[in-house]
Amino acid sequence: MAHKAVEITDANFAEIIKSGTVLVDFWAEWCGPCKMIGPVVEELAGEFEGKAVVGKVNVDENAAISAKFGIRSIPTLLIFKDGEIVDKQIGAVPKAVLSKKLEAQVA
Fold it and tell me: What is the rounded CA–CA span in Å between residue 66 and residue 14?
C-alpha cells in the first residue's frame, strides 16, 4: 500500500512542521483545482517517504492554521524546513514542479 499524505490539523500542525522538510497542501472539499492536485500530493507522499513529510490541511476544518499563514486562495502549498517556510506554490501545478521544489529542500 502506498504511503498517504498526513492529515494536518490545528492541533498537530506545530509538531509536524518541526520534523525536517514538510510539504503542506491547504485545500477544501469544494475546490476544483484542489481535487486536481490532491492525487499528485498523495503520489509525492509515497515518493518522498523517509525524506520529507507530505500533509494536507482542510481549510474549512482548520481555520486557525489557515489564518496564521494568510491562506486566501487554495490550493496553496507551503514547504517548511525545520519549522520555517522555505517555498510556496499557489494554485494547481504539474507534479514535476512540486517534486522539484521538494527535492531542492531535501537534498
Answer: 13
Residue found by looking up cell 476544483 in the block:
32
Is 34 assigned a catalytic role? yes
CATH architecture for residues 6-106: 3-Layer(aba) Sandwich (3.40)
Catalytic site includes residue 76: no
- 53-58 and 6-7 beta bridge pairing: parallel
Check whether 74 has a pLDDT greater than 90.
yes
Tell me the pTM. Answer: 0.94
Q: What is the pLDDT of residues 5-42, one digit of tens each?
A: 999 999 999 999 998 999 999 999 999 999 999 999 99
Instruction: Give me the catalytic one of 23, 31, 57, 77.
Output: 31
Q: Give every CB contact of residue 43 below 8 A, 6+ residues apart in sequence.
A: 2, 95
